[in-house]
Amino acid sequence: MVKVEFLGPIGKAPVEMEAKTLADVADKLKEDGTVKEWLPKCAVALNDTMVSDLNTPLKDGDRISVLPPVCGG
Amino acid sequence: MELYNGPLDVKEIFGRWLDEEAESNYGAYIPFVGTIRAEDGIEALSFDIYEPVLRNWFDAWQQRAKERGAVVKMAHSIGDVPVHTSSYVSAVFSPKRRVALELIEEFVEDFKANAPIWKYDVKNGERIYAEDRSTPMDGSGLLA
Question: Is residue B144 part of a domain?
């Protein structure tokens, strides 16, 4: 199982799911109406490191963070 | 990198940073202050931060600065920050001015684009995500 957390204004509780790659996570999140609209503008971190490859393999206990558009300062 | 609940004590932070580097032989110290402006009827801005990714982002910048003989520092607020107070300060120290002038611009611009911080307007005590002023981070859309 991996854990997916939704940061900042997304305002959704973390979910756990079975996934072998980030592509599996993407497929499952696209089924969730409240999250789907956020996905085109969100970046992704795996265990707090930013990632850019959907083929990134996942292992049990991995933590995936979904980061919506930012505005610090 | 320093994080505080509420507005920053700008004078204390800049004074302390100056003291920290007093003997480091840097010829240039360029500070930047972000102050909350009164506009659109807001009482304050409010901030969420994801600290682990922010620390990684900042550590990478410290390394980039080090390669140019410079040091970057920053402090940011968490939670509500009233108008006319400050939520963000940063600074670059370098041996000569040119590197510091270039780095402060690159650092502050990348901060706006890629630091994992979310901003909300506070109106009538309610937090409203500042969506129209927010920027998707590099690599956004991966899961879409």
Answer: no
